[in-house]
Amino acid sequence: MRKKIVAGNWKMNLDYNEGLALFSEVVNMVKDEATGTQEVVVCSPFIHLHSLVQLAKGSAKVSVGAQNAHQAESGAYTGEISAKQVKSVGAAYVILGHSERRQYFGEDNALLAKKTDVVLANDLKPIFCIGETLQEREANVHFDIIKSQLLEGVGHLDAAAFSKLVIAYEPVWAIGTGVTASSDQAQEIHAFIRKEIAAKYDQSVADATTILYGGSCNPKNAAELFACADIDGGLIGGASLKSRDFTDIVKAFN
Ligand SMILES: O=C(CO)COP(=O)(O)O
To answer: What residues form the catalytic site here (predicted)?
Structure first.
């Protein structure tokens, strides 16, 4: 069956020492918790990755991920980081397609398809984000948007490659706003995503795909969201910056 995952996305927060201190607390707190969460992933800025991987050694449950990788294997791309470089420090995951990358850095589905290929070729697991804006939801085109983000971004993969992905549904209107999708709204979209995966591949691929919810997820609403049939965990922004809140979300799977 699919894995239950809680992932933190620190975004562009925390200096080096702050990140190490927070991560050490999370590793310690998560260690002893009885929870249905099978894997805890922390997606940090690049500067932390190597040290976090070292700190995570010995923790069966905690993995480390990056928040982006360039679509080229290597080359003259000043300021960029490749998937191979991320892999070389021992990270396991890379977030791709986050709405902040789509919005502020112009990443579209075609570019994200290339990034997905390079990330997979380097034996890293993409956490592939999709989700509609408020205007798209109000215009009632959110299902079309989500379907095209899914199919144009990762629909070119064969079933074996697709099965390495984690999908994250993050409605843009819920990110950092304090407005969470209701559990009914989130479950509706998660079930839709799973149905689309089944249509593209088959039911066994769909049933095995972890689909995370992200957007103002916090210790108060996590249990209700995670109890939904098609919600397999969370991608947590703001609340991942506080060890107690993040660990309480990890504990919300019971
Ligand atoms: O964007 C997110 C995670 O990737 C969600 O952010 P918040 O949890 O801060 O709303």
So the answer is: 98 (electrophile), 170 (proton acceptor)
C-beta of residue 98 within 8 angstroms of C-beta of residue 9: yes
Q: Give the mean pLDDT of 106-131.
A: 98
Distance 10 CA to ligand 1 centre (A): 9
Rounded distance, CA 47 to CA 252, Å?
30
What's the alpha-carbon Rg for the chain, to the nearest Å?
Answer: 17
CA distance 177 to 197: 29
Kindly report the pTM of this predicted structure.
0.97
ipTM for this model: 0.99
Report the candidate in 239, 249, 207, 241 with the shortest Cα–Cα distance to residue 3: 207
Tell me the CA distances in angstroms from 53 to 24, 48, 190, one per residue in order: 11, 9, 31
In the chain the domains, ranked by start, together with CATH numbers, are 5-250 (3.20.20.70)
- State residue 254's pLDDT score: 73
Report the alpha-carbon distance of residue 174 to residue 77 in Å, rounded. Answer: 33
Ligand 1 neighbours by CB, cut-off 6 Å: 9, 98, 170, 175-176, 214-217, 235-239
Name which of 75, 71, 18, 67 is nearest 42 in CA terms.
67
DSSP, res 228:
S
Which helix (H) or strand (E) element contains residue 173? Answer: none
What tokens does 132 get?
A: 């509609």
Half-sphere exposure of 224 (CA within 13 A, CB side): 12
Q: CA 17 to CA 11: how far, in whole Å?
A: 16
